[in-house]
Amino acid sequence: MKKYSNRSSVTLLAAGLCLFSSIAMAQSKGTLSSAVPDGISYAWVFPQNSPSYLGEAALVVENPNGSKNISSGVWFVEADGYRITASNPEKYNEPIRVAHADLDMDGWQDVLVAFRNRSAARFFIGREDLDPLIYEQPLPSGPAWNIGIGDINSDGLNDLAVLDSSQITILLQDKELSAGKASFSLLVRLATLYPTRANPLASDRFLFGDYNGDFRTDFIVNGWLFLNLAPGQFTARELPYRGDAQTISRLDQVMDADGDGKPELFYVESTGAGVKSYKLVSADYNPTEIFKAGFNAITTSSRIDRVFIDDFNKDGFPDLEVHTTDNTLYLIAGTKAGIRNVLPDSLNDTWSRGTLQGLLDLGQDKLLDWMYLDSVSDSLFIRYPQGGFLDRTVEAGLDRKMAGLAVAVADYDNDGLQDFFAITGGVANALYQGQSGGKFLDVASAAGISSYNDGISCAWGDYDNDGFADLFVAGIFLPDKLFHNNGDGTFSDSSKALRLDRKGQQRATSACWGDVNRDGFLDLLIGNYDGVNWLLINRSGRYFEEHGADYGLAAKEYTESSVLIDVNRDGWLDIVTLNKEGPTRLLLGGGDGKFTDRTSASGLNPSTAYKLFGQTQNWGDFNGDGYPDLYITRAEDVDMLFLNTGLKGGDRFELKFSDNLNGKYGRIASAIADFNSDGLPDLLIARTSVFGDFYNIPDDLLFFGSAQGWPVISTSLSQTQSRTSSAETFISGLAMNLDSSLPVAEDFDQDGDLDILYVNYLPDNSSDLFHGSARPLRYIQQQNTFSNTVTIVLNRTDRKNVVGTQVLLAYGGKIWWQTVSGGYGRIQTGRRPFYSLGTAPYADSLVVYWPEGDRQSMPGPIYAGQVVITVDHAGPLLTLTDKPGGSDMVIASPTTFSGTLKVSDPSPLGWLKTIIRHPVSGVEDTLSLDATVSGSYQVKVPSPAPGDSLYYYFEAADAYGNQSRLPASKGSYFKLQALPGVFLGDLNNDLRINILDLVRLLQIMGASGPPPTQNELKAGDMNRDGRIDQLDLSLLISKIGTGY
């Protein structure tokens, strides 16, 4: 089991990271979840100052009624960066009671399971980097109604207290361990006592501590205090009755609350009529009153339901956490003087599923995580504070100013790291190669693509299917450029392959790749501000031909943004254009090689007035219906958000929001991604300061996804409305004063959470967004310790492009659409769809629609992390490395001949078969092999009779049904022919192996009898090693009487 041998130390004053700091409390929370067994009785978190190799927490199914439908046991909770798991080493068909403490005194807690129907206990001793040591010992007591662990005799070893119906048995741990196993000896048996009346302070949990300060360990159980007077001598005193008191659920610890060196007992007291207040009372031992109310640790207006005691900040003093029914947690940091007079901090979680079981620092990030158990859905939830965002621009090597007019992301060198190209508006463009750790290096000059360009759009696409992304850079007045990726880190200028006549001063405003005719090669859509948009049809990766008019692109409307996107998910790319002098146009693609204008029924033009300058489009699935939705930013007019109806009646798109967001700042582009990890896409709108009367630098706008099906967008924003007021209290680090233009949300550092790259420029004026002044790049890294996210890695064995691939991931009761973008004009995101699962423990299914129409599906559960999907149109590669029998000519044998077949495929195997063909009859026998992955497999072929022959071949298929054959040509076979007159083991040639063959073999070995013939020597060499010896004799004896 995974354990932490070196726990991080936590300093109470650690700026911004302190467990009890107000900064940590204000952060939003992400969620990890896991299914757990039915019937969980309770759970606990292992203490910070005494952790466990067994896990971070434990879940217990006691099954007190002995139900046959429920297995009892302990499930240990662990976590990695993506998911939590609850694993169970043993299950039982009987009721149990459980306790935990450090049994082997190594500083790490262990677990003991006692049985309620028999006198025995199972010990679970955690070990670093090893499975736990598990063993059973009998107990010299009755069956355990309850069990406790504490150092009764103060010798530094933990002892046992076992309670049954009539007695409490105290067992002292022996000083010597035997093979790492603890043993115990009887100290004393005490009578089991019960409260004389129903006492709210009575609990069946053992609470150990030196309550009277005499340096001996006492204990409380069943409402009685057992004072330890001397070895084996205890006196029992009943706890006082407090009718208004309430026992705190699962209070199985006590603490020195007032610094007097003795532990106190806690209970809750309610006061007042009608509107009540609740006090957590610390009660100290008193010789007369047993426990006398001391001070109130905290007073609240909501009922106190849980109390947790631990040294959470690891300063050597126990702290107190008090949880109330309104989901507020009060944190009281312990001091040398206890917690008296310490003002509590408080934080609230809006989580409403399940009951809080404890707090822990699961990721060792110095932030408290909340563990909930929901018995309704049998789910465990860990609510972790999100780490916020940090500006890593300088550390990432991006400390540079540029007029960033366009940006495109791709892994151009296929090293698994995201790279990006930016049009800089300066002397040289930039190609930033991704490095490990989220760093970047500008290699544009060395790559050969740094030449100046005046365009505002660029896009990656592998136009010749060589497996490397090529780059198109649109020009305004300068020519367009097509750079071919040579696969060695350099590019060649292949612009002549475009064969595009720009016809004078026509300006290209956007570029988007996509396979519009589904021939397996990417075509290119270019927005034309001064004429009809261009559609370049790819001719087998060799050159392009412009066919915009032929495909139905006929109108001149001053297009600012043109995108290929499958809006109706019929497998054919459609076109959406944003135009200054025309409507937002929708052209639906189809199998006839034409686009059909469906603008009038699109719903994208609720008013004819939306025609002002500065429009960009972005696509995402806001409501989880599996269809792409649209957000349009307009620098000079209103933004609009459209939901795709999927044509369930009415227009294709439905307007859900339109507003100019107070119009004081320019809005160039947006990003759609789940920034707060709740499973719902959010909307980030970048703003510049050039527009209107206000020239102070604004913040961007961040609106969170919501249950209504789209982000909650304020329509009454003031001049200063920004991320600070809408998101900063939930996600730290997002409020920055900068002119931001082009936000790109990607997991650049591949740590499972989103980062944000801002490529920025300041437009010269509101009527000319084609030029601008330089502004700094910004690179903001998210700092989550955990990430309940899924990254889809798309691979193709045929090296065709994945642009246009659509991914549908089902989780949380909905189906969420994403696509690999061919470019949205100013911004092109990478090729790895990225999802946050929110509170879902896993995704239920995954469906991938490849550009040529193929569909692949993967059933759930699909857990957080990277999911690799490969499209594979080739069958497995088969290689016969060792022929059965060693050659085509063999000696007939009573056994089969074995060989080795090597199977290679990037996908899992579906099946593997050996087919035996009898040449005379033509009958074929099929032998199936158990093969699921690539590797070498033993294949067997039966022996032909002497002088006969047979044919054989192999067939295989991968998990996607792609088949292959060896030999490859249909009608060709491998041949196995047996020598005439010889059968292995049949020395006398009577076509069977019997005692006569044994006698003859003994004669040959003893050099007696007639000289052996060549056929006898061949038949007697049972192991085919070229000689006759004792091994052959043994093999022949084993065949006698077997029917050969």
Automatic annotation (TrEMBL):
Organism per entry:
Candidatus Glassbacteria bacterium GWA2_58_10
Q: Quote one Gene Ontology molecular function term.
A: hydrolase activity, hydrolyzing O-glycosyl compounds
What GO biological process, any one, is recorded here? polysaccharide catabolic process
Return the Pfam families for the record: Dockerin_1, FG-GAP_3
Q: Name the SUPFAM superfamilies for this protein.
A: Integrin alpha N-terminal domain, Type I dockerin domain
Q: What is this protein called in UniProt?
A: Dockerin domain-containing protein
Query: InterPro entries in the record, alphabetically?
Result: Dockerin_1_rpt, Dockerin_dom, Dockerin_dom_sf, EF_Hand_1_Ca_BS, FG-GAP, Integrin_alpha_N
- Statement: the UniProt record of this protein carries the keyword Magnesium: no
All copies of domain Dockerin, residue ranges: 980-1044
CDD domains registered for this protein in UniProt: Dockerin_I
Q: Signal as a keyword?
A: yes
The source's superkingdom equals Bacteria
**Signal sequence region:** 1-26
Keywords associated with the record? Signal
